[in-house]
Design brief:
Strand 2 and strand 3 form a beta hairpin. The chain is 25% helix and 20% strand. It contains six helices and ten strands; from the N terminus they run H-H-H-E-E-E-E-E-H-E-E-H-E-E-E-H. The strands form three sheets. It has a six-stranded mixed β-sheet with strand order 7-6-1-4-5-8.
């Protein structure tokens, strides 16, 4: 996520790309607050291709009381709607797991997004979606995807520790070069975290 990359610097990038886990320093950040802010003013992608990505959470569950008397509430499922490299809408699911698959199909149809252009995190609860949709499951610790050049030849320059490292590095490059943009109002209030705390989108994206 952008909020993760906001705290990733060159040393951290070595962790992502090469599996190097040396010391991390705040001064080495490459995704700055200014870059995140620029997402909302970068040029809109002219592509007409529609995509969707979903961060899968548990959906609505009963409130659980802990030994300390605290309540645990699950995250919302957040779907980002993309037009090319421009995020154009945020859709939030707050129902039960039994309702999730139908909601996904409804939302993709609403924006004219083919299932093959839908990706979701398949860790934990999200794993079950692979049996019910033809979307692309993303498992962070799986093998990196083979990349190809314009002639169809495999690209062998560099290597990645796993798929998560590959995707985060690619995302970082898009942010650093200004290729990615967000057309959603940065002051949009979204429910954030396990307690669904109302927070501005820009603040959630820059959260440490």
């Amino acid at each position: 996520s952008v909020s993760n990359l906001y705290n990733v610097g060159e040393t951290e990038r070595r962790k992502l790309k090469d599996g190097y886990f040396g010391p991390s320093t705040k001064s080495s950040l490459t995704i700055s607050s200014k870059m995140v802010e620029s997402l909302f003013s970068n040029p809109i992608d002219s592509s007409g291709d529609m995509f969707a990505t979903l961060d899968v959470a548990g959906g609505k569950q009963q409130i659980i009381s802990t030994a300390k008397g605290e309540e645990k509430k699950p995250d919302n499922c957040v779907m980002w709607i993309w037009k090319g490299l421009t995020a154009i809408k945020i859709e939030i699911f707050d129902g039960t797991l039994n309702e999730l698959v139908d909601w996904i199909k409804y939302t993709l149809n609403k924006y004219g997004i083919p299932m093959r252009n839908f990706a979701f995190d398949a860790i934990g609860i999200g794993y079950f979606l692979a049996s019910f949709t033809d979307g692309i499951p993303i498992i962070g610790n799986s093998r990196a995807i083979t990349e190809y050049d314009s002639a169809g030849n495999p690209i062998t320059l560099g290597s990645y520790f796993n798929l998560r490292s590959q995707l985060m590095d690619k995302c970082a490059v898009l942010i650093e070069t200004g290729a990615m943009t967000c057309a959603v109002d940065k002051n949009t209030i979204i429910p954030h975290g396990k307690n669904k705390t109302p927070k501005k989108l820009i603040d959630a994206m820059q959260e440490e």
